[in-house]
């Protein structure tokens, strides 16, 4: 695995260990993209944020 893959793996492991902090980061990133695009891609950012949350929360429900 290359450096980028190693970094992604470490980030995922850290997110699993600190899901509350990771969720804050995902929410913050989603809002920033929505603000900068005028909510033009809101459905896509919602889908991406949900996928990111599932990657570190597993089956735990999200409380956005």
Explain what this protein looks like in three dimensions:
With 64 residues, this protein is mainly α. The chain has one domain. The chain is 78% helix and 0% strand. It is built from 3 helices and no strands. It has helices at 3-17, 19-37, 42-57. Helix 2 packs antiparallel against helix 3. The chain is globular and about 35 Å long. The termini are far apart.
Strand content: under 5%
Poorly predicted runs of 5 or more residues: none
> How many DSSP H or I helices?
3
Biggest sheet details = none
Q: Termini distance?
A: 33 Å
Quickly give the structural class.
Answer: mainly alpha
Q: Shape from CA axes? A: globular
**What is Rg?**
13 Å
Taken together, the total number of domains comes to 1
User: Helices and strands, in N-to-C order?
Assistant: HHH
| Mean pLDDT score | 89
Number of strands: 0
- Approximately how much helix is present in the residues? over 70%
Question: How would you briefly describe this protein structure?
Answer:
This protein is mainly alpha-helical and 64 residues long. The protein is 78% helix and 0% strand.
Topology of helices and strands:
Elements: H1 3-17, H2 19-37, H3 42-57
Characteristics:
mainly alpha, 64 residues, single chain
